[in-house]
Amino acid sequence: MIGGIVTHAGLISTSEKTFTEQPLPAELEDLVVVPKNFQNILALVFGIKEINENPQVLPNLTLGFCIYDSYNNAKRTYHATMLLLSALERLIPNYNCNLQNNLLAVIGGLDSQISLHVATILDIYKLPQIIYGSAPVMNDKTPGLTFYQMVPQEVLQNMGILSLLLHFRWTWIGMLIMDDENGERFVQTVFPYFSKKHVCFAFIEKIPKFRLISEFSGMFKHAAKIYDQMMGGKVNALVVYGDSYSLVLLRWFKYLPNIEKVTANPKGIVWIMTAQVELTSLVYQKDWDAEIFNGALALTTHSNDLPGFKPFLESRNPSSMKADGFIKDFWQHAFGCAFLDQVLGNEDEKVCTGEEKLESLPGTFFEMSMTGHSYSIYNAVYALAHALHAMSSLKLKERAMAGRGWLKLQNQGSWQLYHFLGGVSFNNSAGNKVSFDQSGSLVAGFDVINWIVSPNRSFHRVKVGSVDPQAPPDQALRINKEVIIWHSWFNQTQPLSLCTESCRPGTNKQLQEGKPFCCYNCNQCPEGKISEHEDTDDCHTCPEKKYPNENQDFCIPKIITFLSYTEPLGLSLAFFVLSLSLLTALVIGIFMKHHNTPIVIANNRDLTYGLLVSLLLCFLCVFLFIGQPQKVTCLLRQTTFGIIFSVAVSCVLAKTITVVLAFMATKPGSKIRKWLGKRLASSIVLSCSFIQTGICTVWLAMNPSFPDIDIHSVAGEIVMECNEGSVTMFSCVLGYMGFLSVASFTVAFFARELPDSFNEAKFITFSMLVFCSVWLSFVPTYLSTKGKYMVAVEIFSILASSAGLLGCNFFPKCYIILLKPELNNREHLIRRKE
Fold first, then answer.
1. What is the mean pLDDT of the segment spanning 234-247?
2. Is pLDDT of 266 > 50?
């Protein structure tokens, strides 16, 4: 015989053979029934009926059953458990002489605490209990009680809920839990787990335990507080960890604004129900609107429809179930009528015909499809049958070998059934495999069910996904969100449940002080950094060869740049180089054509040609700076520029000194005349140039320039450049050239007032003034620019300073040679100012 302990909800004690009807105890008179749970009894009856009619399972054995009601009360639970262990209809502890009604196991009630009460007694007799509700909370004082659970391990359910929240990006949630140890355990388990995955709790409230109807009024103030938290904030997703009666209380929320003062307006909520929660109604709630739960998502133990169960339900009525002593109670509560033998003289009371149809009842009151709890009971019956079959087969073998009788099995076999349950593995009539893991939990996954509740009181469950226990945690959830029906409040768009709208890519999160980590501000990423995903904690820099786009949400490959002939800047500079080079060559041609004229002779022809050639080379060396940097061009560009410019400035310095010495030599008795001549000028040019050549030689020998790339200076560009190798040597080259320029400028400045009618020192002064101005402005400009524009600044300085030397020194002379030839005579040159 299989015993059943159920919770008061229309599940009243009965047996297939006998039953007794006793008045309720005084303390339970106000307790109301939940007719929907009558299906749990029918599932047990259906399972046992199938087994007894199947010769393949338990041949030559017949299963019976006896069901007692716990009335959700510890005292009555202990009493019912003792009745299961005693003779029928008589409570005599430890006495049961009916060997045909041998108790093998007990299928526990919905409430975990009831299962714990039952287990404390069954443990004495070593009888197994299969529970189909949530597992009781054990503590150090709890004895080593044995259970088998017809639900998967709770950790899988927790993982499924978290996966559901993350899938829909519901990170700001509320939670309702049972006001008992199970609820506390659930919070302690999931709180750190959910927080680690960035799910925050706006509030956690306790659902009062199922109470008597007379105590409801005291709970409304607490319910009003929960209502305001649910409806008044940004929370749109609410996790409910409850029992089968939780929604009986939550259904009051629809009508709470009419009972208690609330501040929040009603809105849609996505209810996320755990496996134990059922949408049920008390008798007085039969016609209540349950639309508040429309669109809820519930996790239920994986199940399929059982063939034959719906016809079995349809065949049940008071007329066909003479032995069922409590179907009449269910019938009267479900259909709101009374049988003739129970009518108390009220003429207005509806009389039950017994022909009422179960399918006409609202889905929240009674379902024709099997609920999750009923499915678990059905599987529990079959699990016990298969375990008993395995045990009896073993006993038959032992009897054949030892000659022992079947009586021994009856007297001593029950306590061994627990161990056989652990090895049970079979496929039920729906095709689902039933087996237990090492902890005694069902090896199965969860289905994700969408509750569809219509205003006309219809209630449908639609499977929209599953949680696979065999898959990796991040892939366990499979869901088809396209078929989900959301609450009408959301207008069939996926709801959001966020404390803060997601930070778009290109921004990062900044936590709000004093609030949970799900509440934050969104700040733009700093310059040069990006964030590619929403809700990024920190921005990061791009790889070296990439740079942020304008929105700072992804990296773009940098383009390779250098001062090229194909771009306008490079082409313009090349044009100026050619123009100035041709102009210099023209000046050289003019001077060579008028080689023997006084103005050419008077200005030291050798120095003049040396200066013009060096200026021509200065212009042409610019071509070393334009184009893609190569090893040869990098080696030559700065050294060539430094040496040629030093030659040019040295020529200017030599010309200036020659002018000064020539004037001083005209004084009577001057000994300076012997210093005049080509040797002095050549010595000045060679010595000054040699020093610069030495500096460049040391530079090339120690740390020469080389081709390099700069990926940091210019955003979005990889600049191909010549690395100068040694900044110190580059500074020395420029510094020495500056020294020569200052020296030339100083000497020319003091000689500018010499009395010649054509005083070259004036022009040298102007040319060196331009030269020094250009190179003094070059230094800050060069240091403040980046990339290819640094090269352009140096080229411009070379061209401008060279053009200044060319223009200031030679354009006046060309003017006289070409346009004023009458001035190009010796008399004019030696004429002094009066």
1. 89
2. yes
**Structural domains present in the chain:** 2-151+371-378 (3.40.50.2300), 154-274+279-302+444-490 (3.40.50.2300), 507-557 (no CATH), 568-828 (1.20.1070.10)
Kindly report whether the global pTM for this prediction surpasses the value 0.85: no
Identify whether the C-beta of residue 116 lies closer than 8 Å to the C-beta of residue 360. Answer: no
Strand partners, 176: 205, 240
So what's the pLDDT on residue 709? 86
Nearby residues of 226 by Cβ (< 8 Å), 6 or more positions away: 176, 203, 205
- Residue 345: what pLDDT? 55
Q: Which amino acid is at 382?
A: Y
String of DSSP letters for 342-400: G--S-TTSPBP-S---GGGS-TTT--SSPPHHHHHHHHHHHHHHHHHHHHHHHHHHHHH
Q: Quote the DSSP letter at residue 414.
A: G
Q: How many CB atoms lie within 10 A of CB 585?
A: 14
What tens digit of pLDDT does each residue of 94-124 get?
666 665 667 888 888 777 888 888 888 888 8
**Could you give the C-alpha distances from 633 to 45, 562, 689, in angstroms and in order?**
97, 13, 21
Instruction: Tell which phi-psi region holds residue 51, choosing left (phi > 0), alpha (psi between -120 and 50) or beta.
Output: alpha
Show Cβ contacts of residue 59 under 8 Å, excluding neighbours closer than 6 positions: none
Cα gap 834→829, rounded to integer Å: 14
- Residue 568 has φ and ψ, to the nearest 5°, of -55, -40
- For residue 407, pLDDT over 50 is answered with no
DSSP state of 423: T
Name the 3-class secondary structure at 832.
strand
Q: In 10 A of CB 358, how many CB atoms?
A: 22
Please check the confidence at residue 170 and state whether its pLDDT lies above 90: yes
Buried b / exposed e along 210-235 (16+ C-beta atoms within 10 A): beeeeeeeeeeeebbebbbbbbeeeb
